[in-house]
Amino acid sequence: xxxFSQKISAVxxxxxxxxxxxxxxRRNSSFAWATCGAPSYINTAATxxxxxxxxxxxxxxxxxxxxxxxxxxxxxxxxxxxxxxxxSPWHAASMLVExxxxxxxxxxxxxxxxxxxxxxxISRLRVNLLPIEVExxxxxxxxxxxxxxxxxxxxxxxxxxxxxxxxLAFEAQSRGAQPIVNLIATDERIFNYRHxxxxxxxxxxxxxxxxxxxxx
Length: 216
What we know:
The chain has about 220 residues and is α/β, with parallel strands linked by helices. The chain folds into two domains: about 5-130, Creatine Amidinohydrolase, Chain A, domain 1; about 135-215, no CATH class. It has helices at about 5-20, 30-35, 70-75, 80, 95-100, 120-125, 130-155, 160-175, 190; strands at about 20-25, 50-55, 60-65, 85-90, 105-110, 115, 180-185, 205-215. Strands 4-3-2-1-5-6 form a six-stranded mixed sheet. A two-stranded antiparallel sheet has the order 7-8. Strand 2 and strand 3 form a beta hairpin.
């Protein structure tokens, strides 16, 4: 079975276990998992994205707006993957979900009227990585290591923590790894704070750099 087929099968097994007829996935993490790596976010700080998925016993729908649909279709190739696009103006997406799930016993990974909470079960599905996902994690780790190594070698006394953070973000993003955690401390700040957000303080002797990257 393909990665996509295995994940749709896992969602439907969860539906059967919970005696549901559909599952609605709106979290960015759930969307990326079920689509084998496609991003649904615009605001990187948001929990839910601008596209969502509805899996029923027979079909799998992708629900989004007229702004995002072209990118998801042409660049992410989600029609080819097997999703049936349901597109509406940006302000009417929830109406599409209600129409498609009308009369069905629904589960959801975020609060949704009338739906049962399946966020925990979806999280457990996500953390059991398939071999291809393990390779993605290894690739991401390598990219972050390269970004860290390149940045460390460029750090010099007199640079501010903000400058170092900017370089680390550049090196990560240029390799396709989104820097979702970028912590920098220099000198005494290393010992004073567990999670040091970068500041304008300039490095005198040494620096600590922390990076967490996201990809697919």
